[in-house]
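Incident log, structure service

09:12 report received: a user says their structure output differs between two submissions of the same chain.
09:20 pulled the input from the user's history:
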Amino acid sequence: MTDPPKISNAEWAVMEAVWDRPGATAQEVAEDLPEKAWSPRTVKTLLGRLVKKGVLAFDVDGQRYRYRARIERDDYVRAESRSFLERVHGGDASPLLAYFLRESKLSGDELAELRRILDEKEGG
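09:34 re-ran on a clean worker, output below:
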């Protein structure tokens, strides 16, 4: 997979809404983002940018456009994570993981999950 285009924080919020509700209209996306208090016009602008970037597509439904993602959330997160790791740590995950482990308060369940992943990596 080639790296997806970069998207802004505002565009990310819109993508989250579309991933959560495929086929949403601009009005529905705006309603799904009450903390943003964006007008449908602002949302339409952001949706248009995402269509131009190729991460969203739309279908015409009467007088409305219904938006859907052209990239899965997990694929986008994976690509962005790889990009961040390359940029900040030269691709070396160890310092990044060590930093997060030292700086985060983790529950017993989270620690158990991390141990399970490490054991899996060690065995694989």
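09:41 both user submissions now match this output. Likely a transient worker issue. Closing.
09:42 reviewer note: Helices lie at 9-20, 26-31, 40-52, 73-89, 93-103, 108-123. The CA atoms of residues 66 and 111 lie 41 Å apart.
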